[in-house]
Amino acid sequence: MQGGGARSNEIPAPLSSRTRSLRELAKLPNAAIALAATLVLSACTFSDSLLNNDIRSVWLPAGSPVAHPTVVFATDREPDGSKFGFGLHWDAATHCGTAQLSIPAAFAKGTTPAWPNIDGRSDVTCDGDGDMTGYAQALVHQAHDLKCQSALLFVHGYNQTFRSALLRAGQIATDTQWACAAALFSWSSEGKFDRYAADIERSGYSVPVLIEVLRAVSATGLSINIVTHSMGARVTLSALSALAPFCKQLGRPIVAELILAAPDVSSERFNDDFGHLLGHSADCVHRATIYASAGDMVLIGSESIHGGIPRTGREPESDLQYVNRASGHIVDLVDATLAPGDNIGHGYFVQSYEMMEDMMWVLAGESIEKRARETVLHIPTVFCLEKSGQTCNRADGRYALHVEKFRRPDWLLRALRSLVPITSPLQ
Predict the structure, then answer these.
(1) CA–CA distance, 349 with 372 (Å, rounded to integer)
(2) Would the pLDDT of 211 be above 90?
(3) What's the CATH number where 370 sits?
(4) Which end of the chain is more exposed for a tag (fewer CB within 10 A), N or C?
């Protein structure tokens, strides 16, 4: 399947090799001041609970302005009586249900705007002594109705409300053209940009719940696929690592495709949390795909908060140490630095049709080598990034997301992002 319009086969040059004029560089001080002002105000302007984000498909054509996916959800959030049902606080109980959503396309000239919304919600009992049978059966029923045997589970990152997480799950299912059961696991993020440490704590509370979710769904025979973002990667990898004995006894992986977008997990050279978690989870996962971006300013801030320890989702080159380190466990890396998205470079995985197209083929089981070639079904979604004589082979390959020049972050945004590591206090 081909999407997003025609693209050039040109191999982009590394960002560091591009030249800037003196006139462009002279603009940097003013731009830096603007960035500093933005960061000072970030606790308000970047807080998801205050923004009520307008979440839209990056794929739907104007002729089909609204998709209506159904998402089966589980959450450890406290109910709040709102239309979406759950707020910003942790609850010592698990709540599940099924939600019908409206996911609109981008605005089209001359058409009446449609807005993302929840069309309906029904509750499912799932909290009896850790019993997730109700949640798992809701997924089975959805898969049966769609005449398929698999599920796509989204686990969100920090600074996410339940509303945004639910709508994102629907958008991801829509934009990856997922044709089977769609699911969400929403832990109790406070949805506030300045509550990062609180989100770390609450993400830890949710690991036992996700373990029960995965165990219950795997018992139904459904094939599980997971897309997880940012801090959600900690929750997901921790749960899968804890399930390693279960998977080993089962004799097969319970997750077919694990997509780790911008994982906010430490990857320190001699104290490598990500490497340990990935290795321990190998018995539970057929293939892991890591998307990383050097321009991710949220992960730059995370590095500072963690005393300068690198984050896996920001260091594309060092991530290569994870490629195929466990026998029979496939690990692919995609450098997504060139992906368009939000200005802080953290939401590219849902704001770029290039990302959605590549993720679609990952979920379809296509190898990274094949995704780098033109086929009868698609143009390349990634390309082999050769550097210092490096070639893309299974032992040491490096791939990058295929993005046309006019779609990449412009020089000013790249320059601003390059200043952040210098100004972050603990880098």
Answers:
(1) 18
(2) yes
(3) 3.40.50.1820
(4) N
Residue 276 lies in a domain: yes
Residue-wise DSSP of 343-389: TTSS-HHHH-HHHHHHHHHHHTT--HHHHTS--SS---SEEE---TT
Q: Cα angle vertex 104, ends 163, 42, to 5°?
A: 50
Per the CB < 8 A criterion, the answer to whether 69 and 103 are in contact is yes
Q: Is the pLDDT of residue 342 over 80?
A: no
What are the tens digits of pLDDT across the range 276-298? Answer: 899 999 999 999 999 999 888 88
Domain-embedded: residue 402? yes
Residue 426 has pLDDT above 50, yes or no: no
Q: Which domain holds residue 105?
A: 20-423
All residues at 6 or more sequence positions from 40 whose CB lies less than 8 Å from its CB, including other chains: none
CA-to-CA distance for 94 and 212, rounded, in angstroms?
A: 11
* Percentage above 90 pLDDT, the chain: 55
Distance CA(169)–CA(164), nearest Å, equals 8
Q: Is pTM beyond 0.70 here?
A: yes
Q: How many distinct structural domains can be found in the chain?
A: 1
Taking 60 as the threshold, does the pLDDT of residue 41 lie above it?
no
